[in-house]
Amino acid sequence: MRRVATNNAFGVLLVLFLALFPMFSSDFRLELMGKFIVFIIFAIAMDLVWGYAGLLSLGHAVFFGLGGYMLAISYSLQNGVPSFMTRFDITEIPTLMKPLQSIPAALLIGLILPSILAGIIGFFIFKSKVSGVYFSLITLALAKLFEMLVVNLQMYTGGFNGLMGLPRFPIFGEPMSLTAYYYMVLIITVLVYLFARWLTNSHFGKILKSIRENESRISFFSYNASNYKIFIFIISGFLSGLAGMLYVPINGFFSPLDVGLNMSTMVILWLAIGGRGTLMGAAVGTLIINWMSNLLSEQYPELWQLFIGVIIVMVVLFFPDGIYGTLKNRFGTYFDSLLNRKIDENMEMEMEKRDYANNLS
Amino acid sequence: MNIAQQIADGISVSGILLLIALGLGITFGVMKVINMAHGELIMIGAYTSYVISTLADLPFIVAMAAAFVVTAIVGALMEVLIIRRLYGRPLETLLATFGISIILQQLVRIIFGPAGKSVSNPFNGALNIGSVYIPYLRLFIVGFAIMLVLITAYVLFRTKFGMLVRTVSQNRSMSDCLGINTPRIDMLTFAFGAGLTGIAGAVLAPLKNVAPTMGMDYLIDSFMTVVLGGVGSLLGTSLGSIVMGEANQLLTVFGGETGAKIIVFLLVIIVIRYKPEGLFKIERR
Amino acid sequence: MKKWLGKVIAVGLACTVLLAGCGQSSGSESGGSEGDGIKIGVLFSDSGVTAMGEKGLKNATLMAIEEINADGGVKGQQLIPVYEDYASDPSMAATKAKKLLLQDNVTAIVGGYTSASRQAMLPIIEQNDGVLVYPMSYEGEEYSKNIMYVGPVPNQGLEQFIPWLTENKGKKFFLIGSDYVFPVQVNKQVKELLKLNGGEVVGEDYVPMGQSEFASIVNKIKEAQPDVIFSVLVAESAAAFYKQYDNYGLSPDTMPIASVVTNETDLSAMGGEVGEGHISALPYFQTVDTPENKEFVTNYHAKYGEGPIDTLMQSAYYSTYLLADALEKAEDINDAGQLIGAFAGLEIMAPEGEVTVDPENNHVKLNFRIGVANKDAQFDIIEESEAPAPEPWSKLLFPDHEEPWKK
């Protein structure tokens, strides 16, 4: 329980900062921040599978992309048959895509489809002996596959060029202002965070963590590890799809680069650099890396990628717990002692163990 | 459609896959390092070949040798400076090498510029058997790939170094106890794998393009080839590349270029799912 | 030792963040104080896949700005280039365009490369009433009142090229391209033109972006025995295809590759002996014999070193000059409508020869040349004429399309 105070204090500060951000930021920076907050949802979704269940998916952007494409295609269908279809002599909206003509339906599909896909993939993979690196390689192949499909089915997806001119923020009919959309995204993100925290602190979350640490032992306690993994994968797919959909209106553009290997590796980076298995690390890493990329690329357009590469290597080598993880480990205790909450560490570990044993039985 | 030609082309594509996957077979297969900078090692090999054979106008064989040396050095540096500190944490190695791949790409871009470079073909002409036509360059690639496999097999199974490599990969702590200098073996193994990858880049340079971003295309193909055949088995990697290459070429007849790729990837996924040990892994124990 | 190193790195990381942050704020301050300059956004990729082509465009644009400034600038003011890298990512192009317009308050942007990057920027430019000068050839079927399209649209390259090919090289065509909109649209017009000129299509194939294995395509081509291979392969695929064509012993004497995209940069990536004998139709080749071009080539080489110069770089170069002329002509340069309006009818002596801006549709009327590649990775020009007027909606494909600029 000791760390919760730090987490709470930090989280409240961060949300406060983000909530006040529109007061002192230009529209341009506000929009960037909005985009990055959407990315936090994606990073949290990734953290659930990687940080908590120990499954490094190299193709998580597939779910992000599926959600995003549903909404983006739906926007494109609003004014009749879009030009990327007429170019290939499609004069009528294909039957399969008709439901996407309605935006609310698209919103629903964009959440359900990634969840179903995640369920299928999860069922396919976790019900076998595939694990660790092989899981990562399968998801890598999936990301590549999805990217190729999107590019190849250009008469339905806009292909390599992507979908352009997507309207800004008309999620509920009337267009929203940037600030309103920003706050909506922020609130959704906070809710997602709270949900994820509740989930990971629950009995379910503890089982997940123990699957990560030692799968055979937890199976020995007659828990069906694969069902837990499938379930968390579905939740993660759902949240990734949500992030993808929130991203579309604020980016105004959606292309295969947002759904394939590129995006899949980016989210891993944010998480690794922020610190996985903490949820807050997902937020910290996402914000730091994205702001840094943006500001560095403005200052050093020819060298910024070099900096990013070096930073990645350095963080992996010297801060294996990520930036937030390291800060928390080092200063968390100090901070808590300021709050007169110093608890004997051994005592606490003892309690945690007992807690854990109770939950298991 | 000339099926015989398609099969012959499949063999040449298999040769290319074998060439790019062989080094990965060592670094990933034997050492269990997920090297995301594998493609960039190919790229460095290709650029070395550009410097030696186009800029310095030296014979192609010199370029190949130089590519081996240069990438082996880069590999050794990678191992000593970074990968060594991350053994036992495969996923972190993945991240670190991803960072390295960004760095290497950007460095090459700064030195040589982003535009593509040319390396001239050392083997002009083609072998013509009936209706089948195989360029000497592709023939050379297949032959050379087989030769490299044999050399690698010799090194791994017939030399003292190879014995040490296998010993360390099987039981590191025991090797340590026996007084084997494991860090040195690790470094040399990784350098060897990297060097093989570099040669692949040098040999492919006249056939494909040479540019800072070229490595990305090879990375996934290499991993899929190694996994398909069976991680940690030379024979597996060789057979895996034949299956991938032939499948890719023959499927283009029915599915077109993209279709073939998509089907092959699906096949690989299914194979990993049902036979994660690979199609051709022979249990040795 | 490890702890110590960790601390150093932590400090280093913190410094980088601060550096980025501080640089940012100081940058915007200095932007505010320099009142007597006209800011021009320059937006190309320095990294990522398309950087291989874009670097030259960036160089040429910056060089043009320098030359214009040396000549006294525009309206007595200096042009201040603000360069941004978008890393070959269209989403990032949109972000950067927005940054240039809103943070830096640039008067206009010269930039964009792929259609994807342009399309991603388009709504941003329109919403914020900016001006984009786009120097690339593209597939057409687009018009924005905020974009000046300075590259050829397909009809300008094809209307003369296809008849020339059917007359001089043969009637049977094999069409090949990268799998996205531009090649598909170009080949659509090629097919229409072939119908008119008695040609036929004996094969058509598209490969995924970035593909570098062409064994089965070459196999199909050999089966089909075309007289001309018409290629719209872009970026790295182009060099790989020409190389493998050469490997398989095909000869440009009997089966040349004809292209409206392959330029000097591609030739130098594949090597002179591979490209030799193949044909390209483009507005400009490095070998164009005009005094303007000699000056351009000499200056470019003096500034950036010996390297291939291609039509896209040239286009970026004179685009910047066109922009300067329009800035000079427009009364209120901060009014996008006036600035774009000022482009209409402009004439300029570009390295490629005379270029005129169409009075209505924001496209340009440029030159048409056919070149045969030689051993030195350059083109020998064998045909030269004025290109037809730009038709963003090709009259051939869209005989009764309502032209949006007339609304």
Describe the secondary structure blueprint for this structure.
The complex is a heterotrimer of chains A (361), B (285) and C (407).
Chain A: H1 2-24, H2 27-52, H3 61-76, H4 83-86, H5 103-126, H6 133-152, H7 154-157, H8 178-201, H9 203-213, H10 215-220, H11 225-251, H12 261-274, H13 280-299, H14 304-318, H15 322-338, H16 345-360
Chain B: H1 3-30, H2 38-55, H3 60-81, H4 90-112, E1 126-129, E2 132-135, H5 136-158, H6 160-170, H7 172-177, H8 182-204, H9 215-229, H10 234-274
Antiparallel strand pairs in B: 1-2
Helix pairs in contact in B: 1-5, 1-8, 1-9, 1-10, 2-3, 2-4, 2-8, 2-9, 3-8, 5-6, 6-8, 9-10
Chain C: H1 2-33, E1 37-44, H2 51-70, E2 78-85, H3 90-103, E3 108-111, H4 115-127, E4 132-134, E5 147-149, H5 154-168, E6 172-178, H6 181-196, E7 200-207, H7 215-224, E8 228-232, H8 235-247, E9 257-259, H9 264-270, H10 272-275, E10 279-282, H11 291-304, H12 311-329, H13 336-343, E11 347-350, E12 353-357, E13 364-365, E14 367-373, E15 379-386
Parallel strand pairs in C: 1-2, 1-3, 3-4, 4-5, 6-7, 6-8, 8-9, 9-10
Antiparallel strand pairs in C: 10-14, 11-12, 12-13, 14-15
